[in-house]
Design brief:
Layout lengths: L1 E7 L4 H10 L6 E7 L6 E5 L2 E5 L2 E10 L4 H12 L7 E7 L21
Antiparallel strand pairs: 1-5, 1-6, 2-5, 3-4
Helix pairs in contact: 1-2
Length: 116
């Protein structure tokens, strides 16, 4: 069992969700986050004052998957989130020690969607 965490551009969210649906990956959490990596700093003018904007708007996806769904999940995210520009994001694959489905009490692989 793994937790796939992806940080992507907000404008690529619909493409990524569609790709995950096609890959039969279900069950995810989405959060709006701010951060920066290799992007150049933006400078904006606000009420006549120049302000350096150091953080960019991003979207964080968290997807718990069984082991054999890790590769299809990562491939779907990489293919659909890529623009080729700096700031496309990152994908992290983290080990998961234990999972419980609250509704049924199922554990581990039985509690992860999808199960193969």
């Amino acid at each position: 069992m793994k937790l796939v965490v992806a940080i992507i551009r907000p404008e690529k969210l619909n493409d990524v969700l569609e790709a995950l649906f096609r890959a039969e990956v279900r069950g995810l959490s989405i959060s709006r986050v701010q951060g920066h990596g290799g992007e150049t700093e933006r400078v904006e003018t606000y009420r006549g004052t120049t302000v350096k904007m150091e953080l960019s708007e991003k979207v964080r996806l968290e997807i718990g998957v069984s082991d054999h769904f890790v590769e299809p999940t990562v491939r779907a995210i990489l293919a659909s989130a890529r623009t080729g520009e700096v700031g496309d994001g990152k994908v992290f694959v983290l080990p998961v020690e234990k999972i419980y489905r609250i509704r049924t009490g199922e554990e581990d692989t039985a509690a992860v969607t999808p199960v193969g």
